[in-house]
Amino acid sequence: MKSINQLIELTRELRNFLLFWFGQSLSEIGTRLTGFGLSIWVYQNTHAVTQLSLVIFFTTLPGVLITPLVGALVDRWNRRWTIIISDIVAALITLTLALLLLTGNLQLWHTYVSAFLTSLSGSFQMTAKSAAIPMMVKSDQIGRANGLIQFGTAVGQLTAPILAGILIAKLQLQSLLLIDFSTYVIALFTLLFIKISQPESSTKSEKRITTILDEILEGWENISSRPFLVLLLGFMTIHFLVSGMSTVLIDPLILSFSSATTFGNVMAVAGCGMVAGSLFMSIWGGGKKLIPTLFIFSVVNGIGLIIAGIKPFIPTIAIGISISFFSLPIILGTNFTLWQTNVDPKLQGRVLSLFYTVAGLGLCIGNLTASPLADKLLEPMLSPDGLLANTVGRLLETGQGRGIGFLMVMAGLFVVFVSLSFYTYFAFKQIDGELLTTDGEILENKTINTLDYQAKKLINN
C-alpha cells in the first residue's frame, strides 16, 4: 500500500512532465517513421547507397554544427515556445513532403532540403527540451525523467521500422507522412496544457551577433573552468565515438555470415534490451551516486561489445548487443542528469549545446573511421592467410566479417579500459557523487548557483 501511495505521489509530482513526455515521445515515433519511410523511398527510387548516405548526412551534420548558436538562442528565448515553434516547422516540412508525394511532384532533392531543415529544427527542439527538463521536475527526479526520455527513444527505435514496413506496404508513404504530421499536432496540443518555468535571463539586453558569440564562449568557459565537466565531456565524447563505430559495424558483423531475417531478429531482441534498460533507468533514476553509475554501466557496455565481436555465432552476438543496448539508456540518462543538475539553468542551453556539438562530432568520426579500419586494415589481416590468422585468428576465427568482429572487440576493450580508468581516478580522489569546481571546492550533488559562485570568486580576489 505504501509503494502504491508513493507511486501516486510521484505521478502527481511529475504530472506536468509526463504530459510533456507523452507528446514529445509520440512525435519522436512519428519522426522515426518518416525517416525510415523516406530512406526506403530514396533507395527504391535510386538504388544507390550514396544517395541514401546524403540524406543521413543532411539529417545529422548541419544540426551538430549549428548547435552552439542554437544553445545561445535557447537561453535567450522562452523554452516552451522554442519547442512549439520547432515542432510547427517540422510538422510543416512533413506536410509539404506529403503534399508533394500526393501530387506526384516529390523529387530526390526535396528529401535533401527537408532533411537539412529537419536537422535545424531538431537541433532547437533537442536543446530546448534538455534545458527544460530541470525546470519541470525536482532535482531528485531528473534521473527518472531522463530515463523516461530514453524509454521514448528506445520504443521509437524498436517500433518505427516494424510499423513503417507494415504501413508502407498497406497505406504507402504519403499515409506515413500524414501519420507523422498528426503526431506533431498531438504534441503541440499537449504543450498548450503544460507550464515550463523560465530561469532568470543572464544574457545582455543588446542583441548583436557578437553578443551571441560571447554567450557561446561563456557556455564554453563554464565547462572549461570546471575540471569535472571537462572530464565528463571527454569521457562522453569517447563513448559517442565508439558508439558511432559500433553502429556502423553491427550490420555487416551479422550480415557477413547470416541472412537479413536473422539480422532483423537480432536487432529486435537488442531493441528489447534498450527498452528494458530505459525502464530500469526510469524506475531507479541512477541512484544517489551518479558518477560511479556512469562508469560502471560503461564497463557493462564495453563487455557487451566484446561478447558481440568474439565469435561469428548469432546467440553470442544477440546477447552482446542486447547487453550493450541495455546499458545505453542508463549511460545517457545518467550523463544528462549530471549536466542538468550541475549547470546553472541560465546557462544550460549553451552548455548542453556545446556538449551535443563535441559529442556529435565524436559520433561522426566514429561513423567515418569504422569502415576503413575494418575493410582496409583488419579484414585482410584476419583472412585465412592474413597477418593475424595464426594469432588473433585462433581466438576470433578467420574469414569474412572477422576483422569487423576484431574491431568490435577492440572497441569494447577500449571502453572498459577508459571507464575503469575514470572510475579509479574518481575513487582515488574520493569524490564519489560529488563534483569539483574550478577552485577545487567540493560541491555535493546539487544544482550549482553560478551567480553565487562568481560572487565568491570576486570576494576572494
General description of the model:
The protein is mainly α. The chain is 81% helix and 1% strand. It contains 15 helices and two strands. It has helices at residues 2-13, 15-46, 49-76, 79-102, 108-136, 142-191, 209-224, 227-255, 260-284, 290-310, 314-342, 348-381, 392-396, 402-428, 450-460; strands at residues 435-436, 442-443. It has a two-stranded antiparallel ribbon with strand order 1-2. Strand 1 (435-436) and strand 2 (442-443) form a beta hairpin. Helix 12 (348-381) crosses helix 14. The longest helix has 50 residues, at 142-191. It is globular, with a radius of gyration of 23 Å.
List the helices and strands and how they pair.
Elements: H1 2-13, H2 15-46, H3 49-76, H4 79-102, H5 108-136, H6 142-191, H7 209-224, H8 227-255, H9 260-284, H10 290-310, H11 314-342, H12 348-381, H13 392-396, H14 402-428, E1 435-436, E2 442-443, H15 450-460
Antiparallel strand pairs: 1-2
The helix content, as a percent range, equals: over 70%
Determine the CATH topology of the largest domain.
Growth Hormone, Chain: A
Sequence of secondary-structure elements = HHHHHHHHHHHHHHEEH
Low-confidence stretches: 203-209, 432-461
**What would the average pLDDT be, to the nearest integer?**
82
Q: Give the N-terminus to C-terminus distance in angstroms.
A: 56 Å
- The CATH architecture term of the largest domain is Up-down Bundle
CA gyration radius, whole angstroms: 23 Å
Let me know the number of strands.
2
Count of helices? 15
